[in-house]
Amino acid sequence: MKKKITVAVLAGGNSAEHSVSLESGRAVASALRKRGFEVRRFDPAKNLAGFIRSAKKIDVVFPALHGRGGEDGSIQGLLEFLGIPFVGSGMRGMLNSFDKISAKQIFRKNKLPVARDFVASKFDSRAVENIQKKLGLPVFVKPATEGSSFGASIVQKKSELLPALEKAWKFGDDAVVEEFLSGVEISVGILEKLESGSTSSPQSKLLALPPIEICPKRTFFDLHAKYDPKLCEEIVPARISPRLTREAQTLAKKAHQVLGLRHLSRTDFILQKNKIYLLETNTLPGFTKNSLYPKEARAAGIEFPELCEQLIRLALPHKK
Q1: 57: CATH
Q2: Does residue 309 belong to any structural domain of this protein?
Q3: Strands 117-121, 212-216: parallel, antiparallel or unpaired by DSSP?
């Protein structure tokens, strides 16, 4: 009898996205059990030592950790040290993406279209004046290192700017302030293919999923809108032209590549008329029932259990 592959699903953690991570972890664990895997769940915030003690009995790890500790390279560095295969990008790719300042530097270096921005340090006494001078208003303010729209705000008036910065600074010393771009918001997931020929180019190994259109019923796609289906309508495939669809998918592939990512990612965009702006790339997108990435995969004909298994197989290429 063939031995089952043992998967450790890591979920929870210490980030502001703890509860969402737990929900992702439960969904992933259930899907993998349906596909015949032996699954063990660990919350690194509560039982990291237990996970490390079990490391020799684990074939592969599926990190369903969002935010700090899950997408900043921390858990990936530990897994690389322990020598355990895992789903998702390595420590370097995670670091590149999680820090929005470094990510935008990489995007600009590779000529990907991004919004004008200003990095506001909490130690800069003239931050408000400098932002107005460079960008004017309105602007979008967000922490440099945080996910799921925590600490993010739209600022329409000068009186709102300092409170928005202080809100973002609660998550770190730097805030990224961008010119506010209004338009159609879409997201494009990337999934690496299981099979690829030895002569194929790196880009040909990547599957760009159908773009999903995000229509929040709030001022922007904030934390509440992301996880409450009553507060946001999500349409897949997005109601955009074939040309814009191809362009967004190409940009999502390029973002995945230049950040040094693997297995999966999801890149968010704003479309203003016929111009696309790249907002940011998520390295471990949500895997809850309301999450964007699984909805895009389903639109491509990949059901959730199959998606989870494919990611496991990517992490264990020798066990295809």
Answers
A1: 3.40.50.20
A2: yes
A3: unpaired
Q: What whole-number distance in Å separates Cα of residue 186 and Cα of residue 191? A: 17
In the chain, the amino acid numbered 58 is I
User: Model pTM?
Assistant: 0.89
Range(s) of the domain holding residue 237: 95-113+182-319
- Note whether residue 1 is domain-resident: no
Each residue of 205-225: pLDDT tens digit?
Answer: 899 999 999 997 655 545 544
Pair 151, 171: CB distance under 8 Å: yes
**Contact yes or no for 36/4 (Cβ under 8 A):** yes
Integer-rounded Cα radius of gyration of the chain:
20
Q: Do the beta carbons of residue 24 and residue 11 sit within 8 Å? A: yes
Regarding whether 77 and 105 lie in a shared domain, the answer is no
What amino acid positions are annotated as catalytic residues?
17, 148, 227, 266, 268, 280, 282, 286
Closest CA to 270 of 191, 213, 314: 213
Q: Convert the pLDDT of each residue in 57-101 to its tens digit.
A: 999 999 999 988 889 999 999 999 999 999 999 999 999 999 999
Question: In Å, how far are 5, 36, 37 from 2, measured between CA atoms?
Answer: 9, 11, 12
What is the reported pLDDT for 200? Answer: 45
Angstrom distance (rounded) from CA 54 to CA 41: 11
Type of residue at 274 = N
* 195 and 276 part of one domain: yes
Domain count, the chain: 3
